[in-house]
Amino acid sequence: MTEQVGVWLYAVTRATDAAAGSGSITGVAGEPVRAVVSDALAAFVGSVPLEVFGEQPLRRNLEDLDWLAATARAHDAVVSALVRRGPTVPLRLATVFLDDERVRELLDTRRADFIAALTLVTGRTEWGVKAYTDRATLTAAVADARAASTGSGKGTGTAYLARRRAELSAQETVERDAAERAEAVHARLVRHAAAGRRQAATDPALSGRRDWMVLNGTYLVDDDHAADFAATVNELGKELPGIRLEITGPWPPYSFAGVDQEPI
C-alpha cells in the first residue's frame, strides 16, 4: 500500500533566489526539501507522511511538548538555511497542504502579499527584546527616583518620611510604572527598526523563568544597523533602573511574514 503524503510548507522566496535549489536540506520528517515554483515566487516544501503529519495525528502530536520542540527545531533549521541564502518569508509551523498544486494556488492567490513581505524583509533581520523586573526591585527604583526628584535625603526625620511616602506611592503604582517603562522601551526601539511588534508575554512554564516579563518585543532591523540597535538596547537598560533588558537574535523574520494561510 502506497504511503499517503502531504506537503509541509517551510517558507517562500523569490524564484530567482531559489534557482540554486535546496541542496542537502532535510525537513521535519527527514525528507529532502524542494522548491515549488509559480512565476516569480518559490515555496520550499517537503513531502511528509500523513499518518504523522495529517490533521488528526498532527493535532495529537502538537500536544507532546518533546515532539513539538523537535519538530519546531527542524522547521526552523530549514528556514534558517534559506534565510542565509536570501530574503525569505517563513511560514508558521505545521502548515500542511494536500499536494504541490495547492501550494501553487497559495502562491498565486497571495502573490501580492508574499512580494510585499519579501520586500519588507530584504536586508533585514528579526531581533527579540524582552524586559523583565520584579515588584520589589521596580518599587525601590521608582521610590529612589521620586525621592531624588524632591531633593529628599536620608539623614533627617523629614527626609525619612518623604522617602517612606515615595515607597508607598511606588507600591501603589507599580503596575502602571511597569507598563510605562515597557512602552518607553518599545517606542524607542521602534524608532531604530523598520518595524516592531509587541508579543504576548512568554508563559513562565515554557520559559522556565519566574521574572515578571513586562515586554516581549520583536523588531525588524536593517542588517547594517544591527550594532546601533543593540547599543540602543544597552542604553535603555542603563536609563531605566529596575528594568532588565535581554536582546536575542538574529532570527528569521517570523513576526513580520504577515501571510500565514490555513492549510488546504
Key descriptive features of the protein:
GvpL/GvpF; alpha+beta; gas vesicle; single chain; GvpL/GvpF family gas vesicle protein; 4-stranded antiparallel beta sheet; 23% strand; 264 residues; 5-stranded antiparallel beta sheet
Please characterize this protein's 3D structure:
By secondary structure, the protein is of the alpha+beta class. The protein has helices at 50-53, 55-61, 65-83, 100-109, 111-121, 135-149, 157-172, 174-191, 204-207, 226-239; strands at residues 5-14, 34-38, 41-49, 88-90, 96-97, 124-133, 195-198, 212-222, 244-251. A hairpin with a 2-residue loop joins strand 2 (34-38) and strand 3. The chain is elongated and about 80 Å long. The mean pLDDT is 84. Keywords: Gas vesicle. Its main location: other.
Blueprint (SSEs and pairs):
Layout: E1 5-14, E2 34-38, E3 41-49, H1 50-53, H2 55-61, H3 65-83, E4 88-90, E5 96-97, H4 100-109, H5 111-121, E6 124-133, H6 135-149, H7 157-172, H8 174-191, E7 195-198, H9 204-207, E8 212-222, H10 226-239, E9 244-251
Helix pairs in contact: 6-7
What is the global morphology? Answer: elongated
- SS class: alpha+beta
Low-pLDDT parts are none
Q: How far from one another are the termini?
A: 24 Å
Helix content: 40-55%
**Average pLDDT:** 84
State the total count of DSSP E strands.
Answer: 9
DSSP helix count?
10
Q: Classify the beta-strand content into a percent band.
A: 15-25%
Radius of gyration: 24 Å
Order of helices and strands: EEEHHHEEHHEHHHEHEHE
The main β sheet shows up as:
5 strands, antiparallel
